[in-house]
Fold these 4 entries.
Entry 1:
Amino acid sequence: MSTLRNKVQLIGNLGNDPEIVNLESGKKLAKFSIATNETYKNNKGERVTDTQWHNVVAWGKTAEIVENYVTKGKEIAIEGKLTSRSYETKQGEKRYITEIVCDELLMLSK
């Protein structure tokens, strides 16, 4: 049960082509976002689709797979952990970001 403490599983579509970063250390990083959709009926009986965007990062071999096979619009399933971090902009403003660090990836589109 301890493996469930911080586990995220999502199925969604890529909003843009992944950004690939080759670091000086030789490691590869892939950054991308996926959209998940939830459909429900509101109190008027109208069908409403709620889209949520999720920031995802992948490292190493997973980043290589993303670089070679994943493009804008593709449907994928990911599994990973949720992380939060902060950084400071050039103007000195503190920003916060929540990301999913992807450990596993399954391509669902052809």
Note: The CA atoms of residues 8 and 80 lie 5 Å apart.
Entry 2:
Amino acid sequence: MKRFTVLSLLLAVALMLVPGCSKEGTSQPKGLSAAEKRPAPDISVISLNSVPLTLSELKGKVVLLNFWATWCPPCREEIPSMVKLNSSMVGKPFQMVAVSVDEGGQQAVDSFLKERGFNLPAYTNPDGKAARIYGVTGVPETFIIDRNGIVVKKVIGPLAWDSPEVAAFIEGLMK
């Protein structure tokens, strides 16, 4: 029994050290931040169809705000689970906002998603202001915002967004 406990602990530590990407090539461990339990800063982003979205418009919904890039392997790894989570939330008070930090803008992101067949609610922020406001230091970096506009979780690094635990957490925020 002790062997199982030690192995479980080692696995948990290893999972926390899954790296994310930053433009400079440095990595960050997955984890939570002191950014939690504060009002979500209002930002404006642009959909791939050139429709602007302001975060404050989504008050009343649980928001998964994800910063990512097409060149980031961990971002690419988590996109299929994000697509599945988003599909499972259709008709519920939930909104996924996947903001690309790619310098290539809408065209680069649109091409990337179409080539891979991903149906992701993707947005761009050409001036990079949204990522700066949220203090993003690498990608992927995700903020879960409750229906009252409060950041309740910050996740650094990739995550299996379609896991039952994540779905239950988000469902709980919708109540």
Note: The domain at 2-174 is CATH 3.40.30.10 (Glutaredoxin).
Entry 3:
Amino acid sequence: MKKSYYFAELSSSYDAEIQDLLNDSEGNSALKLRLKEKRQELKSILPMIEFSPEMVVPVFYDAFSFPNPKAMAAAVMCEPDDGDFPSWADVSAVVKLESWAAPYLAAVLAEGAGEEFMVTAACLEFIRKFDQSAPQSASKNDDDEEESGDEENRGSLNSDEDGDDEGRDLAEAGDDWLGEQGFDSLKS
């Protein structure tokens, strides 16, 4: 799924937040309990919607359904500062919010940044549910499969045997960027 830089960054942070909520310190499933706690403490975490929205979005975990995925796919391509970021009125017309989430919606919309946050929340939930390239939930406990996948990925990223220069090009681009920022080049 293509995403704007804003949503690519936030979806990664949101996924990490959900991963943190999945299990307690003993490895037991804790997602339902922790989501309930997040919802109960909404009033105290509400100020975070402007500077750390991924910490508040779990309040709306599974609160949205998406009857118009094309409209949502377009929304996740937008940047908040570009002028093309959809309004909450636009997004609320193409999503369905579960009735249990109505009190949380009202609390968020009472805030100055509430409408933009709700657009962000709907988009992050859309990405979580439909982005096939996003990391999968940690509820899958097949360690052998994960380990073999990691080894395969390491091998393909580090080898140029098949003529793939992507890893080298990325390193050169990174070196060029560091040079532009005033750092010494790693090139000889």
Note: Confidence is low (pLDDT under 50) at residues 137-164.
Entry 4:
Amino acid sequence: MPEPTYEHQYAARVLANDLSEAIGDPHLVVGPVDVRMADGHRYRSPDLVVLRSRYRGRPADPQNVQLVAEIVSPGGGDEYDQKMIVYAEAGIAWYLIVQETPAGYFAELYELETTSNKYVRHSATAPAGELDLPEPFHGTLRLRQLS
């Protein structure tokens, strides 16, 4: 897989800053880091991870992960299918997908529905919009800043 583009990395940094502000602790927003999946053998490395508490070592235990964020690369990826499935199977409560369009970045926030063990869309933005984050977060993602 090729390394991320400048735009991808810049978007990740801006999102990390907003998420750090939303949870009040910059030490809990990191990425990319390895997160162990439900089978205990595989792992994924989301663009950003919001942790419940600091940890050492790798991979991160999914029970310590509140949210994973993926920034869709040009040409797309498997953010809406395979990644969505494995993050849900791992029990990660929140999944954020951010994607660039000609009109600016937009975001979709998914919440894990525990009865079905599938993500349901909680909220979404228009391109270059703002996403107010629900509990346990306290903040806003300002997607206009990503462009």
Note: Residues 6-146 form a domain with the tt1808, chain A fold (CATH 3.90.1570.10).
